[in-house]
Amino acid sequence: MSDSEAQTRVEARPGTLRDKLTLVLAGALGLFVLYTSFFGAFESLIQRAIFVSVIGVLGFVMFPLGAGKPWRRWGLALDTLLAATLLVSSVYIVLNFERIMTELPWAQPHEVALAAAAVAVVLELSRRVTGSLLFPAIVLLSLGYALLGHLIPGDFGHRGFDVAYLTEVVYLSDRGLWGLLVNVASTTLAAFVLFGAMLLHTGAGQTFFDLSARAGGKATGGAAKIATIASGLFGSINGSTVANVATTGNFTIPLMKRLGYPRSFSGAVEAVASTGGQLAPPIMGTAAFVMAELVNINYWEIAVAAILPAFLFYLSVLTTVHYVAKRKNLGQVDTEDLPDWRTALHWRRMAPIIAAVIGLGVGIAQGRSIALTACYGMIGMMGTSITLQVFGGEGWRGAAGTLWRSLVDGGRGVVTVGVLLVAAQVFVGVLNLTGFGVAATSMILQGAGGQTFAVAAIMAVVCLIAGMGLPTSAAYVLVAAVFAPALIQQGLDPLVVHFFVLYYATLSVITPPVCVGVFVAAAIAQSPWARVAGQAVRLAATVYVLPMLFLIYPGMLAQGGLQEIAMAAVTGVVFCLSVASLLAGRAVFGQASYSAAVWLLPAGLALLPEWPATLAALGVYAALELATRALERRPVFGAGP
Length: 641
What we know:
disordered C terminus
């Protein structure tokens, strides 16, 4: 049994000491995030050291060693020792903050020991969080490379660094364990994770599902469209493909199966739709906040840049689902099984959501920090929710319970991504020290002959491979730190390059052979994972090409003027609709399946970055669409009533 399974098993038995400790620590972490979001963060290293110590201790409580096994007492002893070690290492930084920031101290033997212990503890936590040795092994390799790189001949060799100097970088500075990614995790990212938890606990989750059901349930392929819309809405908040599949999938996949949808298709729809949630604002699988730090631009610019690509993602998936369902005559959802519009849009359910949006708007209008803006949204949302509960008969106790559960769930959500970003920061800090990224960039440019799209193709494959088995945020950071400079040196905008990396790192979650999102969906659908993976790749095939369009049309990411953005939007829509029609096997002339290949014509024209080609693509697609609809409406002679 894995650590995550053990966690679920123990949480099913409320009232244990570990349950109570989890509630206290997670609630305290939520309060810490709320406090620092409103009043401002502490001094840099103090803020980060406190954050790391709390998520570390809470991590060992949430992911215990040997839970449910006879030797659990030994696991408890080791967990206590590791948690205490990380706590001591963090407190040492807090107590020596001024010396570290002003004197740039030489590492002493006891500091070397504290650094080694802290790194080891963080890597063990990352192993438990991911359930795999892959991520900590990559970080360990980077540390080994820093120590022994002077033994490597050629471009990848470097002058070498001793243990003391490495300690100064990793532990006694703001470039390693307490680096910029940890700053992002402890401030802006944590604030929006808590914002998402509060949003769901104030009833937005059920509202999202009801609205999705009403929007897509009666359409062709209604159950699959419900899954697509609902998973997109949920995923844009919780930021995890696996968690999204596990939650919304338990409702949508059985619904699709009950209406006669193939099991593999049902699982694939849920997996792909949940993956897209990580690419949709506001949270984008937590990557938006990390990207803002790496690219050094405002988070809101990234959120705006993500809107059109996210729209194109779901447009392509919904279009493919629509025509597959139409061709296979897949069932719709009965009206009596759909929620009522009045219930879904009742003012009591919508009020907290509207208040949250108003709070965010006020923060943006006043030019507040991202964390404080999120805090304004939380204050508006929770204030409205508490008022409704108190005057609605639930009383102060019910309102306080909602607030506390939000803080606890927010604290839990911060742990997973926080631990991964601490470990990823060690990796990034060490690679920047050794210059490995420069050597890798040089190798890629030479191998691709300096051709931009050859470099892009190599990077796409690297992203898909590197992201397998890793959470999206970790995969994005690892690949962006090493390989993004190769495309940036080709003269491309850093924002475009980082979105390119993010999309392929995200798609690795549904790309075989290690496709964790597909594994979860296949288990719920009770279908072989290989079949689900095949269907998922087919559904997402358009999206695999979409990042390449970023390089041709930066306007897809809101770069350039209105003309560039308009051309990118028209091109993207035509391309997605054409390729989705092709993948769905939509015939154009008669019923001959080969005729579907004509959808490649407008798709091909859309790849040419000029207005004449864009307008030609639009015209060809419109003609094909009109011809197809006319043939579909044509009566079949000789057919009986």
